[in-house]
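Researcher: Structure prediction, please.
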Amino acid sequence: MAATPASASVETLDLDPAFALHRGGKLEVRSAVPVRDADDLSLAYTPGVARVCTAIADTPALVNDYTWVSRVVAVVSDGTAVLGLGDIGPSAAMPVMEGKALLFKEFANVDAVPICLDCTDVDDLVETVVRLAPSFGGINLEDISAPRCFEIEARLRDLLDIPVFHDDQHGTAIVVLAALQNAARLTGRPLGDLRAVVAGAGASGVAVTRILLEAGIGDIAVSDSKGLIYEGREGLNPVKEALAGDTNRAGRTGSTEEALAGADVFVGLSGSTVSEQAIASMAAGSIVFALSNPTPEVHPEVAAKHAAVVATGRSDFPNQINNVLAFPGVFRGALDVRAANITENMKVAAADALAGVVGDDLAPTYVIPSPFDERVAPAVAAAVAAQARADGVARA
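Model: Predicted structure follows.
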C-alpha cells in the first residue's frame, strides 16, 4: 500500500483485509429475549422491570440471577503495554480489547465488554474499575504496563469480590506450566529435577516464575535487562526484590546466556536474543520456550538442533504458547460457580487440565493443544470450577 494508515483514506485502508475485517468493530449487542408486542415490552421494561429492580434492592444477590452481571467479563486496559506496540493509548488499544472479547465468546461462550480507560495513574485506574465492577461478574485486565500492573491487580483483588485476572501475567503462566509439564513428561523428568532460566521480569516473566515455583520447579533464575536477579542486587523494584528472595538459590550472577550453561529449561519473555551457542550449552534433553513475538529469542529451527522440545508464541511453528488456551476456560469455570476470586490453586488446576488434553498423543511437536481443539475450554473450565469449590471461593 502506498499510503500509510495515518494518511490513507478509509477506502484505501479497506483494501487491507485486516482493516476490512475491523470496519465497524468486531462486536455487537443482541437481545436475549423477544419484544414482539406490548405485553413483551411491559415485561422487559416498564412496568414489569420495576418488580425485578425492587427484588434486587431488597436482596442484592439476586442481581446474579436476574441480570447479565454474573456471566459478563469486563476487558479493561489503559493502553500502556499493547501487544508489541507499547504505550499507544486507550483508543488505539480498543481493537485488541474487542478482539479479546471476541475470543471469550468464541472459545468459551463468555460475554465480555471491552473498556479502554483514559487514565494511567494507579489510584485513578483502581478507583474507576471498582466503580464499574457492579456491572460485571469478572475483570480481565489487559495490556497494562509493569510494574504498575502488579499493584493494580493486587489492589483490585483486595477490593472486589469477583474474579480479577491479569491475562498478560496469569494466562501466559498457565499455558507455560501446562506445556512444561508435558515437555518434562516427554523427556522423562519431574519438574522438581529441572533448573530453569526465565529471561524477562515483566508481567509475564514474573507470573511464569511464580507459577513454576508453585508447581515445584527444581530451581529457577530470572533475568532482566541488567542480568540475573539475585538477593542484594542494587536497584531492584519491590517486585524484583521479592523475586530475588524466592529464586536463584545458587546465587548466580551474570547474563542470561551464562546462566543457560547446564540449564534444563529456557523461557524467553523479554524480546531479547539468545545465541545458538548458549542454547547448545544447555543440558541434554533441554526445553526451549522462545516466546517473544513476532521474533523469538532464538529461531525455533536453530533451537531444535540442540533442544528436545521447542515452543514459541507463533502460530506458524509447533507448540504455540497462546493465552487463548487459558483465559476463556478460566473465566468460564469461575463464572459458572460465581467464584469470589481466582486462587493460585485454580491457576495450577487450569494448567493441569490443559496439559491433560494432550494425553497419549504427546510428542516433541505436540506438548500443548491447539487453540482450536474444542476440548480445551471445557476441560479448563471444569478444573477451575472444581478447584474453586475445593478452595471455598465458589458461591454457586
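Model: The chain has two domains: 66-162, 169-396.
Researcher: Thanks, that helps.
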